[in-house]
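A quick aside before the break. I want you to see a complete sequence-to-structure record at least once, exactly as it would be stored in a machine-readable document. Don't worry about memorizing anything.
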Amino acid sequence: MRSVSHVRKHLAPLAKQMISILKELGIPDAKVKNDSEETIPSATGKDNVEVFFSANKGIDVRSLAQVASGGEFSAIDVRHQIHYG
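That is the input. The structure line, written in tokens, reads:
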């Protein structure tokens, strides 16, 4: 299994990629923050990763699961697949 530090090392570049995608989708003030914590190992791994997001200038980031619609998730996912393979 990979260490938490390995996961954290890849979270900052992921956030930058997400911000780039969101800007391409017409959300110029997007902010993304990723956080992780080690959990009890399971079938999905040993790290709990959460993404925090804000689409608007001056608005603090909140859990992506709370603020993004299904359509927004889909748009980000499709753009990521096209851009990053």
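Two observations worth writing down. The chain has a mean pLDDT of 80. The beta strands are 31-42, 45-54, 62-63. We'll return to this after the break.
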